[in-house]
């Protein structure tokens, strides 16, 4: 599935919109936004299989794409989602944009996600979370 169809792509798109609106309002600079980089990569099941096989310490017992929120019945609570995102990313934003503006960034993210919730509702039930059960391989030790 292309990244653009994943729920996280909408998250990052809304994050971009929030930051660009803050540039227009003079709250942060365009240079700050242009130089900001979130180190995020979504691995495919095929790529993960190759990595595990190359490592050779584990065998794959089970691998499947699952629903990232099977308990979710109804609309996504954007505020709760952003609380989790903020817990993971706040330090990156603080170091780059300054601690004093971080609350504003995440408040705007909630608003953008809420405004785009109809797009998210169609994506969050897709099987996009990679679940893997690994088993450590036992290597025999040879004494010489």
Question: How would you characterize the overall build of this protein?
Answer:
The protein has 144 residues and is mainly alpha-helical. It has a single domain (3-135), classed as Orthogonal Bundle (Non-ribosomal Peptide Synthetase Peptidyl Carrier Protein, Chain A). Helices cover 53% and strands 12% of the residues. It has six helices and two strands. The protein has helices at residues 7-24, 30-34, 45-55, 78-97, 99-115, 117-121, and strands at 58-66, 129-136. It has a two-stranded antiparallel sheet. Helix 1 (7-24) crosses helix 5 (99-115). The protein is globular and about 65 Å long. The termini are far apart. The model has no long low-confidence stretch (mean pLDDT 84).
């Amino acid at each position: 599935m292309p990244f653009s169809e994943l729920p996280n792509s909408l998250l990052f798109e809304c994050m971009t919109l929030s930051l660009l609106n803050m540039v227009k309002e003079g709250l942060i600079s365009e240079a700050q936004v242009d130089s900001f980089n979130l180190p995020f990569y979504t691995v495919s099941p095929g790529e993960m299989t190759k990595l595990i096989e190359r490592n050779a310490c584990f065998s794959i017992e089970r691998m499947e794409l699952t629903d990232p929120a099977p308990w979710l019945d109804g609309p996504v609570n954007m505020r709760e989602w952003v609380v989790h995102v903020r817990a993971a990313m706040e330090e990156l934003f603080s170091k780059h944009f300054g601690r004093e503006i971080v609350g504003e960034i995440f408040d705007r993210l909630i608003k953008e996600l809420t405004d785009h919730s109809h797009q998210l509702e169609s994506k969050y039930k897709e099987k996009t979370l990679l679940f893997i059960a690994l088993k450590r391989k036992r290597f025999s030790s040879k004494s010489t």
